Amino acid sequence: MDIRQLSYFLTIAKAQNYSHASKILFVSQPALKQAISKMEDELNAPLFIYQNHRLNLTETGTLLKERGEPIVKAFNQLVFDLQEQVDKQKQTLTIGVTFLTMLQYMDQISRFIRQNPAINLHIVQDGSMALQHLLVQEKIDLGILSLPQVEPDIIIDFLAIEESSYSGCVVVPKGHPLADKQEVSFGELTPYNIASLSDHFALGVYTKNRCQELGTSDHIILVHDDFEILLRSLDRLDVITILPKELEVYSSMTELVWIPLMDSHNTYKQGLAYRKKISHNADAIHRFIAAMKTTS
Q: Residue 87: which pLDDT band, with cuts at 50, 70 and 90?
């Protein structure tokens, strides 16, 4: 008899029915009946008598229930205590990514998870501007994000990851008046309504500021954090959007044209950001930084 069989027996004894116990345990009825049969053979005594459509305990079954319950309870508590102890020994690391950096650095992040099983890695996705605020608020430990830097108490380390940057691109449906252009300036966008990233993102702030400068703030008719939502709004709302050029390869939508946006301050360098005062889990932070610097 093992602890699994004893647990089955106690559940059946409480349910007084193989069918109910089967649903509770997620184990088939034949498997439960076989387990009880083996226990009865081992004890050389029946454990249940079927009466009045219920499974009632025999004297042997009653004794096994009384003695078995504290054993199973103690075993379950032991397993819980051991798992809790292991969890306490693990370090926790929370990193922030944008939808672009998550795609770009998925291999490095996955490799870090595989090579560091003693570190619980949590991932938060948001825009670069929002991630900088989360860093300062100590809600994340690191962020893979882009300039501009808006928080003075963080460091954005451009050497911690492979040289990386992105630039803005105007995205329009095929057949749009801008679709045949090789490049476009922001001033040429003034006749059109815009679906924009929110100010959680560097490009969202850029779009908002440029529209304010040109007096076309009312042309931003949709603001969203999800680039797929923005892309799907182009035809439906008759709008254009501005997204990182580097996202084009990750989009499944083929009926769109991505046009380079030629404007000042439209290229954004990306780096690994962390607080100037590294917190208690400094070891996990340094391990992640080292993993990001490793290219293979």
A: low
